[in-house]
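Subject: sequence -> structure tokens, single chain

Hey, anyone have a minute? Need the predicted structure for the following. Not urgent.
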Amino acid sequence: MVKAAYIHIPFCEHICHYCDFNKVFLKNQPVDDYIESLLMEMELATQRTLPDRLETIYIGGGTPTALTAKQLQTLFEGMAQIFPLEQVKEFTVEVNPDSSELDKLNVMKNAGVNRLSIGVQTFEQDLLKGIGRTHSRKSVEESIERSRKVGFKNISIDLMFGLPHQKPDHFEQTLKEAIALNVDHISAYSLKVEEKTVFYNQLRKGKLSLPPEDDEVKMYNLLRTKLAKAGFTHYEISNFAKPGFESKHNLVYWNNEEYYGFGAGAHGYVQGVRNQNYGPVPKYIQAIKKYELPYLHEHNVTVVERIEEAMFMGLRKRKGISIEQFKKSYHCNPEELYQHQIDKLIERGLLEKKQGWIRLTNEGLLLGNEVFEQFIAVLEEGHIV
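Reply:
Had a minute. Here:
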């Protein structure tokens, strides 16, 4: 059942040093043709597989607000012809503080967007410059103030820690300022240096000074304790929400449910098949002009792969995995399939079982990837009924 859609806008007015998402500089790009192609892809995909009822939409990037108000209007009007947007429960758009002009916010609000995700990362101006961001603390405050005035009542911000030259006291100050903004949701991710990024090139040349692991652990512990005191629920490894403001769209991923992926480089998961679109914008547009879905490749997800994904995605949630729900969804008992792995991780203090749930311990949160690896390449196809 497809109840969610991710829409990718790959255009950026500048490229951040840590970003490995599919993106291109905005200047001289065929933005209008891209929007037309996006809408055509939505039509082609829904002709192939009708959504049951679209409940969440997430427009990310890149930088969605790099589009003009008129281009955003064209996109939303086209989407309304394909999807009943009035039925969507959560409609999120990623916003750059530097491009959150009032006319764009009004277009989004009038189209039914009801949640904004604002890229902040840090409030330290030197750190912002060091990671390639161009906004300021003031522009973040102004962006949130404008959004509230337009009527947005669900605002999330993204933060990062483990940045070059960042210290725990820097991050503690960023958390203090983030809490003072009175937002509804905070996502906070540890920096991962990925290939094809500015930081990766700097690291290879020995020019990237990252904090020691102990400092990164201190920052994560500060994140958890400070946000808990401020009334946020820690509901996923990197996500915190005021009661009732958990991200419904991201829970689709963590619950291993299906979703459309529209746009250059986007990934989708529909009717048991994962697909990835062409990344280069011209190649994406060219495929659409042939009235073809722009798939670089498709993969039929096997039973074992579904179970593996359900384990490591489900364990990202703080409440973990419901054993009974797992049995209903996958017709098998995770305790029996992974008895050795679960017992070993419990013995190490990284997992715990409580009232029919399996979840990460506080120590397990710090070693999540190490835990998830224990559930990969363990089972064999054909041995699961």
